[in-house]
Amino acid sequence: MSQSLNGLGHELASPQHQLRVLNTPTTVAHKRFDDSLDESSLFPLTTTGIDIFQINVGKLCNQVCQHCHVDAGPDRTENMTRETAELCIEALAQTGASRVDLTGGAPELNPNFRYLVEESRKLGRLVMDRCNLTVLMIRGQADLADFLAEHRVEVIASLPYFQAEKADAQRGDGTFDKSIEGIRKLNALGYGDPGSGLELNLVYNPTGAFLPPAQAGLERDFKRELDARYGIRFNSLYSITNMPISRFLEFLLRTNNYDRYMNRLINAYNPAAAAGVMCRNTISVGWDGQLYDCDFNQMLEMPVNHGMPTHIRDFHPDKLSARRVVTGQHCYGCTAGAGSSCGGATA
What we know:
Elements: H1 15-23, H2 33-39, E1 52-56, H3 82-93, E2 99-103, H4 113-122, E3 126-131, H5 144-150, E4 154-158, H6 164-171, H7 175-188, E5 200-204, H8 215-230, E6 236-239, H9 246-254, H10 258-267, H11 271-275, E7 282-285, E8 291-292, H12 295-299, H13 317-321, H14 332-335
Parallel strand pairs: 1-2, 1-7, 2-3, 3-4, 4-5, 5-6
Antiparallel strand pairs: 7-8
């Protein structure tokens, strides 16, 4: 990457700049993602239905994590309105989606979060909450854990490592200890206990410009160390590759690691992972009602295309269930190695 890009700071997080970086040749000629799909007989990539209805309720968050692909934080004002939340529920009812994936930001900070949970559960759908754990400990959320348990919400929680130093380096000083408190609060309600029906799954992101290790081995390490050190438990661990967008893209550019990291992703391209990417059975709704193939495309402002309705008010389940996916260079992040999705490895 040209030295002139270094030091641009927060400006690099703009979707327009990210698209230029990801889709324009740099000092190294990067192979196009669509060419890799074509060689795998997967181009054009198409969906197989809508099993996961993902809703990103906004960018407001009580944390500022270095790897955050949403560029979320306490100063963000993008927040889903009640009108858009109601349109989401109306659209959900038209689909056969079995899961509702609530994300943000810290989704719990949106005033319509509990409405979305309650209405989704009334429709018989499993709800997943992408929780940063520390939100369980802030003022005004004292009853949040009880609410999640009452509605049998699956908690998918970010915890970069089982040691405070590494976790805090990615998520901010003091967040690890608060996260452990949050897990203990959930454990006290039965989360993480076999047979309780209250699923607590952790998410691991690498702390640098490398791919995550094998998910199964990492899960064993986390379970052993978290139990031994803190007496806490969880069900599964998902390892997710850091996507070269937003704050992680800033890091790659600032440290002159962009070309190296992209080549690492490209060289690790796995056709089996590409065939199982989450966008093939997901529809993702932005805080403003725009429709996307995945949460990563949201952050790059790449809505569904190829003649599809682009807003939740125009939702058409039959068309959107069999659509062509919008792809780009960042998609190598989901197809490298064992694959990466909101549910961890895919291959």
